[in-house]
Hints:
Layout: E1 5-11, E2 44-49, E3 63-65, E4 85-90, E5 93-97, E6 103-107, E7 113-116, E8 147-154, E9 160-163, H1 170-177, E10 195-202, E11 205-211, H2 226-229, E12 238-244, H3 253-267, E13 276-281, H4 288-301, E14 304-307, H5 316-327, E15 355-359, E16 362-366, H6 368-375, H7 382-394, H8 397-403, E17 411-414, E18 417-420
Parallel strand pairs: 1-3, 2-4, 9-11, 9-12, 12-13, 13-14, 16-17
Antiparallel strand pairs: 1-8, 2-7, 5-6, 5-8, 10-11, 15-16, 17-18
Amino acid sequence: MFVDIAKITLAAGDGGDGCVAFHREKYVASGGPSGGDGGHGGSVFLQASDQLSTLSDFRYKRKYTAQKGGDGESARRSGKKGEDLILRVPRGCLIKDAETGRVIADISGDEPVLLAKGGRGGWGNIHFATPTRQAPRFAKPGTSGERWEVQMELKLLADVGLLGFPNVGKSSFLSVVSQAKPIVADYHFTTITPVLGVVTLGAGSSFVMADIPGLIEGASEGIGLGHAFLRHVERCRMLLHILDAAGSEGRDPIEDFETINRELASYLPELSERPQIVAANKIDLATPEQLTRLREYFSAKGYEYFEMCAPITEGTQDVVQAVSRKLAQLPPIKRFEAQALPADYYEPKEGDNFSVEAEDGIFHIEAPWLLRILRRTDIDDYESLQYFQRVLNSSGILAALEEKGVQEGDTVCIYDFMFEYLK
Length: 423
């Protein structure tokens, strides 16, 4: 089954908790704290695979979670890091935030892409020992891993998109110019899934062509099959428009051409401006008058125009050579750039709470929403730290610290981030 849209939840592993323990050894008095740190949670990565061509694997399993980090142990032993989860998806898969539609990643390259970062392990009590507090009896829990609900959209990576009404000969053409083996039959919607074929012109010279099925009038509004597959045209560097020169099904090939271009413009205006080459197929069934009319029309419109009979390969190589020449002048296949998180993502929302507790002279701040801001804060960058301080002030956290009696020089701990309080 061909599935090109799926909605799933990706959850990175939580960090392990820090350990409270004390060193005990014969003849060693007051050995001190020895609780180790929790391990970091595993992260979730997506990696492109050329062995996959559909998102059907994600249709029934909707949640994917990386491994939690191990808890810290005594004798200063840190917990084991959670194992990363690497999901393989078809090349060309676009990942969007399911709620906002923001593009998170385009899985088109070879390197794994980080989607959800694992939580950090909590500190063990060895980190909280001071000259005046030699036996800290507390440790920090691990932080939560990132969690995203995402929409996956498969947009095929192809240099050339084959356009045309059903039964004009797109599949026949693809089958004779490439090694692809699409189903060819004399009825509508024979092709019900996009088919990719590699067209080879010689050593080191090839391009990928995609047969886009089901484009008819109203496709952009959900009529026929085209509404499900128009997205696969988006990445194509150019389009090859195949027509039934003979109008063997009672349709006018020129009207077909104009209709499909209107559908492209309705779905995405920039598609109607994509370079196009026109190939009139079934010339063995067309009259001289029909062919003359097509030549004159497309010549006046400025399109490169060719005539062919795909089943017997007449004229097909001329079309392929013209496509190759055009591709040499065009930019690479379109890649979608990841979009930055909205500015208000980092701001506290209504209902976001926090707590401030003092324990053994350390002021602990607990605020899950603050963690997402802390993850994105560069502590070595002055402006980034200034922004973080403004958030602490505007959210009321600094005021709460003062109510708890914090003094200049006291230690403030936000998860595994510790700093000295300065007025």
